[in-house]
Amino acid sequence: MKIRSLQSSEMAGYSALSAKYGSVFNSFKWINMFGSNISLNGIFNDNNDLIGAFFHFKASKFGMPYIANPPFTPNNGLFFINPSTNKSNQNTFEKSVMELIADFYKTLSPFFFVTSLPVGYKDTQPFSWKKFNVLPKYTYRIDLSLPENTLLENLTSEKRKSLNKAEKDNLVIKKESDLTVVYDLILKTFERQHEKISEQWLKSILFEFADTTNSIAFVAYNGEKPIATSFCVNDKHTAYYILGGYDADNRHHGAGVSTMWNCITHARSAGLKVFDFEGSMIPDIEKYFREFGGTMTPYFAMTKVPLPVEVIFKLFKRKLI
Length: 321
Description:
This protein is of the alpha+beta class. The chain has helices at 11-21, 28-31, 87-108, 125-129, 148-154, 157-168, 179-192, 199-209, 255-269, 283-290, 307-316, and strands at residues 2-5, 38-44, 50-61, 64-68, 79-80, 112-116, 133-143, 172-175, 215-222, 225-234, 238-246, 274-276, 295-304. Helices cover 37% and strands 28% of the residues.
């Protein structure tokens, strides 16, 4: 097997495979937002047939090159066809693919490297063997095949009280088509938290990528005033919560919860199977996600940085590595 950049003549084959085995993050509409910063890598078998793919995002900071997942993208988009039917052979094939990917990443030689695998890919031994740091991370995923009343019962009592409070106070929860409203609420939240956000990528997601087939946005209104939002992207199987925000000057205890709950129930009504919170290692955010009643699900991140940089990041930017 081998890994190499996909050629234009191979894109149709990639599109067919990714539609079947990949996620919304493998779509050309998502990938093309990142232009020359993203590299799409094909996995080819011994017959030179395309059997899978993944991507990486290239940039630099302070003159130092780094490789990571693309902005607002939870993983490296890995998928591949495992041709084996025997379980031991399946395990061997998957390990071979992971070894191949680990070797490929080593050839890139960035100053800083961090990526993660999609949920379900568990064989990270080859990365450990090749001196990558392998870190377990967690997301919460809701099974949308459950009845809506069961999903509601799975919320904490606090979350249900928040929904009731929003209804009692006559908040209007609207499926929002004007994404400038969503943009403004998200930007306010990042500015309030003194967190940096790339307005370039935020605008690309909301105003270039998002449409009625690939995204869900709900906004809570108090009268005419938009006060909270939740925004998800989706494919035919899974909705992924990626952004949210609220107006601190007009906050309401039930507003954010109600927008999230409406994203969940809308995804269920649309026939999706899973709602994924994308996960967080920040305790307050993890608690917020946990209270929606999903199943805690592990996934794996890999990093490779010079030791002094690793120490600094562990001290000051723990959530990144």
